[in-house]
Amino acid sequence: MRTLKLRILRGSPTRRRYYQIFTVHLHDEANIIDGVAQVFGEQDHSLMFRHACHHASCGLCGARINGRERLMCITPIAEFPEGATVTLEPLRNLPWVGDLAVDVKPFLQKMDQMGLPYSRSDELAPGPEPGNRFEDCIECGLCMSACPVVSNLKYLGPAPLAALARVLEEPRDVDPTGACEIARGPHGVWRCHSAMECSEVCPSNVDPSRAIGWLRRRFITGK
Amino acid sequence: MWIWQAITGALLIILLGVHMVTQHFIAPEGLRYYEDVVAYLSNPGVFALETAMLIVVVAHALMGVRSIILDLSISEQTDTWLKRGLTVLGVLLVAYGVFMTWQVVR
Amino acid sequence: METQSTWQKIWTWIDLRGRREGGIGFILMRLTAIGLVVYLALHLTMISNLARGPEAWDSFIKLVKLPIFMVGDTLLIFGLVYHAINGIRVTVLGLGWGGDHQAALFWGAFVLSVLLTAVMVTAIVAIG
Question: Mind listing the pLDDT tens digit for each residue in A139-191?
Fold first, then answer.
């Protein structure tokens, strides 16, 4: 068993902001999400946070853990020494609902604009009969929070641009013309400043910075 | 604009490099004295080089300023005025620099 | 729902918490950019000293030879060199190349900037 102190940002846009410290006792194999769930279940039922699958597939539990964007469900508590204080804050650049919860609608609207079907035939799962598997991107929003440019809410951002790159690689039933026009525009691919934080925090091998570079080369060569 | 930032940046590495090396290490006494500066700037090649560098550096700087301000979610109307304002400022700065240099060497 | 104010946006640019090499590189790039724009404005103003004749120029040179200006010059040279070298790095990364090595490229750019600054400042001081 391990004891941690979770220092969680509390409050909302209409209520006072403050940090509240909760002490949790967890099995050594637990992840941060288990600590947050313990706080919610045993200490403070008013704590707001998003979670579902607890295995890095739904993308809901993204938060800033000691300042760094990560999924709480795959951040093992074993990374932190016994008795350490771990600061949990909501993702940046998305409207803050309260505590650890943010409104992801503006982000998902940008993803919709890029026209992304959710499975690709060129990412076939291995096996005797090839089957489609889901896109790498789990739409967790970690890259959108880590990107220093997305504080400009008009900028499309790493995940939508990476989504467009995938659509252009394999359009299927989607006409990418409209999305390309947006990406070529003043808040599209050219606003990236190559801080590379998006690719660093992505839990799912999307590598948005590489995708943005690929889009830029494609647009420069007129494709 | 990103492409022009990259192009002007690459040009600046060359032009500024030449500017720094010639002014500090090749020109007599590192251009400490007034007469040395006037003689240096009176060279037509140097005048052309300095003018070229001024145009490129002002373009790069003002495009950079616009890029930073764009990150503040300004409206399209504000961006239009920003582009116009920075263009006018750029032209004025280049004109000022060339005029002042001409005043020194004539 | 809360969205960010202008100051919160600016804070995002310079908030070092949780940033890795690329993010620190971005912050330094932005700070050196702003510093160099301010310097450019001052440098263009300096030309007016030249146009006022030898006495104005000589008294200006005396002023900038003061030790405090040497400290400023060192920061200026570092800012210039870092901005240029990291600018090459950002251009290459921005075209989708070298992403796997971006952290090493940042450290290379930073160390090279420090070394080149040391060499140039030493040379300038030696010349006098």
Answer: 999 999 999 988 877 899 999 999 999 888 877 777 888 889 999 988 899 99
Range of the domain at A129: 105-220
The CA distance from C44 to the nearest CA of chain B, in Å, is: 7
How big is the A-B interface in CB pairs under 8 Å? 20
Structure tokens at A191: 């606003």
> pTM, whole model, 2 decimals?
0.87
Same structural domain for residues A49 and A72? yes
Question: Do residues A9 and A19 make contact, with C-beta atoms less than 8 angstroms apart?
Answer: yes
Tell which residue, B4, A209, A192, has the closest CA to residue C29: A192
Which amino acid, A204?
S
B103 contacts C36? CB cut-off 8 A: no
Cα gap C80→B81, rounded to integer Å: 29
A66 interfacial to chain C (CB closer than 8 Å): yes
Q: Which domain holds residue B88?
A: 2-105
B2 and chain A in contact, CB less than 8 A: yes
Q: Residues with Cβ < 8 Å from C118, sequence gap 6 or more?
A: none
Q: Which two tokens stand for residue A219?
A: 């647009």
Give the other-Cβ count within 10 Å of C49's Cβ. 19
What DSSP line would sit under C7-32, residue for residue? Answer: HHHHHHHH--TT--HHHHHHHHHHHH
Nearest-Cα distance to chain B for A153, in Å, is 6
Tokens 């995708």 identify what position? A211
Residues of B in contact with C84 (CB under 8 A): 9, 12-13, 16
